[in-house]
Automatic annotation (TrEMBL):
Taxonomic source organism: Demequina capsici
Top-level taxon of the source organism: Bacteria
Protein name as catalogued: OB-fold nucleic acid binding domain-containing protein
Amino acid sequence: MTGAMLLERVTPACDLEPRSVARVAGRIVAVQVEPADAAPTVVARIDDGTGFVHAVFMGRREVPGIEPGRTVDVEGRVCETTAEPRIYNPRYELR
């Protein structure tokens, strides 16, 4: 866990609004790590049963406990995107 969770209410991924602060709980279904010649980034795709959100950890090649199959809560500001929502450098809590 990184830091204390600020929000108690969990928002379904299908209801995420750009520029809002939200907490999403779900299962990590995929993890992507950028190649060595790119900026260090880990992207975890989280499925909460209503949709997906990407948790993007900048400046890292690995994040302890972030692996497919784990259940996690992530919290942060939702970025506006035309694809699936993203939360950059979220607070996270492993379940």
